[in-house]
Structures are given as C-alpha cells and as structure tokens.
Amino acid sequence: MVTIHELELKERGLLALIRAKKLGRSILVSEVHQMDRINPFTFFMLGKERYLGERFFWKDPMDDMVIAGIGITKQIQSDQATDRFFLVDNEWQNFLKDSFIYNPYSELGIGPVMFGGFSFDPHKPKTDLWSKYSDSLFHIPKYMLSIIKGQTFLTTNIVCTPNDDESLFTKVLDERNQFLLSINQKTETKSAALLKMKEISPESWKASVDEVVKDLKIGSLKKVVLARELRLFFDDLVEPESVLNRLFEQQKDSYLFVFESNGDCFIGATPERLIKKQDDHIFSTCLAGSISRGQTEEEDDLLGETLLNDKKNLIEHGFVVEMIKEALEESCEEMILPDKPHLMKIRDIQHLYTPVVGKAKIDASLLHIVDRLHPTPALGGLPKKEAVEKIREVEKLDRGFYAAPLGWVDYRENGEFAVAIRSGLIQGNEVSLFAGCGVVADSESESEYLETGLKFRPMLRALGGK
Hints:
33% of the residues lie in helices and 34% in strands. It is α+β, with helices and mostly antiparallel strands. The chain has a 21-stranded mixed β-sheet that branches. Helix 6 packs across helix 12. The longest helix has 19 residues, at 311-329.
C-alpha cells in the first residue's frame, strides 16, 4: 500500500477553504494517488456498511478499466425533460470550476468523475418502479478506485463550503485511513433463493406487438422496439455484491455496471457500447439483430451464418448503422466503419455488430453526442421521434434507466456510456428484469416474445434462476 501524505491534502484544503469563503460557494478538492493492487470487488463490498445506496461499479468488456465509487460528495440530478443533457453537462462544468485537482497521471477515469445516466424517456409518466431514480442522475463519489490497464489509482473528492473549517479534512483523512486499513479483511456474500417469477402482462404485450405491426404496414414507422418486464421474488434481500460476482464469472465479455440510488440498485451486463471518447478519438457500436448460441460449435456456426444472411435482421442492423453514422457526423471530422457487420458472440446470444471509429472535432462534447445518439434504432426504433412516441403510447412498462445511456465522464471530457440492457432493478427481496426486441412490419408477436425470453437469461442466471 502506498503511503498517502496527509499534509498535502490539508494544505490544498486550506486553499480551497479560502477560495470558498472568497467566492461564497462550494469548492472541490480532488487528489489522486497510485496504489498497490486493490481488488475492486472488495472495495465495492466494503462500502456497503457505510455507503449503502451510494455506490457504483463499472467494468468494460476488455478489463482495461474498472471503476468503483463509494459515498456521494456531489449529486447532479434533474427531472426536467427538456435540454437535460445540456443541463447536466453545464452543472458538471460549473462544479469543476475553480476546483483544486491534484492528478499527476494521464490515465482516463481518475480524478473527478461523475457516474450515472439518463432515463429512457423523460416524457413518460414515472411510476413507483423507478421512483428512486431521477430522469437525469449522476454521482461524484467521495472515494473512487480505478484499475486502468492493471494500474491502481485512488481518487478522493471533498467539497468544502464557506461554512467549513479545517476539521472537515481531518474527518475525511480519518475516514479514508480506516477504510483502507479494512481492505484486507474477509468479505462474504449470501445468495437469496428465488421463490417465484411473474411475467408482467405477457398477453397484453403480445397484443401491443400485433398493434404496432399493423401501424408499421400502413404508416411512416419502420421499426419500434417494445420491452417487457419479468418480476422475481426471493426469500431474502438480494445482495448486489452476490449478483455482481456471478455476472463477472458468467458475462466477462460485457460491460458490468451497478448504480445504487436511495436503497434501490440498477445492475446489469450489457454487450452494447453507446459511445466512448478518449481525447479526440470516438468509438461507437452498432448492435442489432440477434440469434441464440448453438449447443455445439457446428450448430453455433450455422446459427451465426443464418444471422449474417437473414434479411429481417440485416435490415434492422442497417437502420442502426445509418442512424449512428448520421448522429456522429456533426461531432466528428472523419469516420471509419466496415461495409458489412460481424458477429458478436456472448454467452447466451450472438448479435450483428459493426464498430464505428471517428475523430472528434475540437469542441465535441461527450454528453452532446450521447444526446444525439439516444435512443439508437436498436432500443427505440425509426424514425426516432415517432418510434419513441409510439413506445410511450403502447408500452405499459416504465423503462426508467433500462435501454438508456449509463456511464461516466471525467473532468478532462473523456468517458464512456453503454446502453443499459440485459439489466435488472433490485428492490429489497424483489427484482425486475427487462428485455426488448425490434418490431418491424413482418414481425410475429410469439416469435418476439420468445426472443425477449432469451434476453432475460443472463440476469436470470446471475440471480440464481433458470
């Protein structure tokens, strides 16, 4: 463990206190230290006792980046539907203004980072299901562990107000030292047993698919993505730590995420990147069209070839490629993408996949790009506005953060957002799982129903179901 010199933080704190009193507002003090290896799962789990409901976790598919945050030093939230991406970005920039940041390292995802996301549709009436999450919600953690390509960093964020004094920093230092000393203690998780599953209005959902198919055949709509809910009931409280560990074992090739808010916990393993910004490089993913995995290598290859040549899925995938390309053109000087999709194979399902790489313009804002991309045709439909309106009209489900952008932004304007599919919302001893499918003019409701069942599998397995 690297020794953290406490005097440096106190000195920066004194300067921040002077600035806070002079400006009459809160000032951020942030410092980064490189550490010996700390297990990020242990870090996340140990935060449970003091920071339950104030934690997040993120792992990319390549294991290049793992970040875990505990405690909330600042929360950015809003239920305002209009200009919400701009408002969050503006509040984030204002929060960083005049801050004291000690970070001698060049890696992404260290220093001040906000983690969170946006609801799928802020114009859809909110239900009790998602009452703990604002339509825009981000946390800046007190303590954040970042594992970047094998290197370990600890970020400490402190907000001091004009009314604070030096005791604030003494308290933070004591708290941090106690936490770091507990890192090596043993942690245990327990698994709740699944008692029953309840599909939420399956026949009504199939009827809504049939209704949308009729509209697709006569109107301007080309595709509408409809989602449904599976509610699970357990014999005890469901621990996010236990589910996260299983996801890590079973879905290592996906983005893993956990985002707590006021006692509820949104968790998932999604294969789909929405956007990544690294300096002036932009990376996005077109993911649409799916089929199951085979029991044997031969069957798996045959299913993959079937998907690569399936007209319905190729058309659906093409919609996504064109939309993402168009959305990124405003923010990129140049773009590169293959002519044909590849296969992305994960444990339970294989998808049509087209990567997109671009060079960002100097003034490109990550959240502005997220705004333009969300929702992609893979999660909303085409045309975007009409498809979302149709979903709002016929879909009974309150999607909340399901199928919406979730991720992180650092103070240097780098960051990454995934599309929060293959996910569930933990609420005590109950969990809601969500899955959707793209409905086009020749869709059949029974077939789409079975496809959503396939997409429930990753989370259902991680929760101990079959």
